[in-house]
Amino acid sequence: MSNRRLKGRLEEKFRLDLAAGKQIVAGVSGGADSMAMLHFLWKNQINVTAAHLNHCLRGAESDGDEELVRNFCRERGIPFVCRRADIARISKERGLGEEACGREERYAFFAELAGEDGVIATAHTLSDQLETMLFRLARGSGPDGLSGISESRGNIIRPLLCCTREDVEDYCRREQIPFAEDSTNRDPRYARNRIRLEAVPALKRVNPGVEAHAGRLALSLARDRDYLEGEAGRLLQSAKISGGLLAEPLREAHPALLSRALAQYLAENGVQADSFLLEDGERLLKGEISRLNLPGEKWLSLHRGILSVRQNLPEAPFFWEFFLPPKPAKSALIGELAFPNEEPAVLWCVPAAEFEKNKKIYKNDLIFSLDYDTIIGNLQIRRRLPGDRLCLPGRTASRLLKKVYSEAALPAGLRRDAVIAADSLGPVWAEYYGSSSRNTAGAATARLLILLRKTRKENDSPC
């Protein structure tokens, strides 16, 4: 690994002005990789601070690593900052494995030193890339996981990702750079070590260039991921409305975009989705399930063509009663309401001709439409009550809504919260079921009673 190759990599990939003295915090463990990186940065007169976290896991060996890095920096005038962390104790307190806990502590330490304007350099190599990809493959990762270690993330750069471990060790020998050997790296109890000691040598016997091929595959998958994430973001924006997402454009999307759009939407609502949760989200959109429980006392609901994340709230009753003016000559606002856990809605009387002319404008907001002149007495918007029945158009007999919802396997929560519109003769419309035969609009309908989600100014007519 030559100076020229590393310097070119830094300038090309990370656009660092090497003459400008930009502050870099280099994570230095004492191993060959990080010592080679530190030496390169120092030799090219880059403003670098060496940061070493002593994990206190290997006793005298850990202290020896710390001393090696300290002496190397002292001899060359490199700023050196060390922190000791009892990873064994901290990992137990947090309920994390020692490896994951150590990673958290290291990056927190590096970020603290770098501040808002600094750059963190870590010494991951092409060999680490192959091992990471194999490790994730064995654990069941998808294409995003197989994209491996990224060349940069935020203010973190990985300048050695173009070099194998053999390249790095050759550089150390040529430049006479001391480095430490971590005895735990050969412990077969660790899965990554078994990959390094058994799987990688076997693959190299098949093709000595396997590391380079893995690097190209990781880069290709990362580019595909970035493109698909961008397209999924555009899909998500196109489906967004007040209160959630329109289900129809999501159903029409390619599965590769749909799963990513769902993941982005859930992340916006504080939910980190795994592949199983995303699969269930797609089932919800297809109508195979009607509700999906999420972490954090949340749930994903498909409700009147709108997909939304809801927060479980204490059960609250709802009831509204509206006086309907007799035969208004033009559009008239009857009133407004707000269902629990939902956006407000408005009740309008609209001439049928105007409704037909303009219904495309508000079709996504329409909850129900009924023949205005068939409503007897006042209109109630309420929860379902015992004994509620409704007769659909084309049917000769009414049916108990309780039985209808039960046969449809509607979840208990949705049955409880189902919205019912009723006049003095009984239900005229039931959510998840439809309007009654006596109140359904037809060719002779002069006026319509419509309930819309409130997405316009309060007194704007829908027509």
From TrEMBL:
GO terms for molecular function: ATP binding; tRNA(Ile)-lysidine synthase activity. It comes from the Bacteria. Residues 23-197 form the tRNA(Ile)-lysidine/2-thiocytidine synthase N-terminal domain. It holds the Pfam family TilS_C. It is an enzyme of class 6 (ligase). Residues 379-438 form the Lysidine-tRNA(Ile) synthetase C-terminal domain. GO terms for biological process: tRNA modification. Keywords: ATP-binding, Cytoplasm, Ligase, Nucleotide-binding, tRNA processing. GO terms for cellular component: cytoplasm. It is found in: Cytoplasm. Its EC number is 6.3.4.19. The N-terminal region contains the highly conserved SGGXDS motif, predicted to be a P-loop motif involved in ATP binding. This is tRNA(Ile)-lysidine synthase.
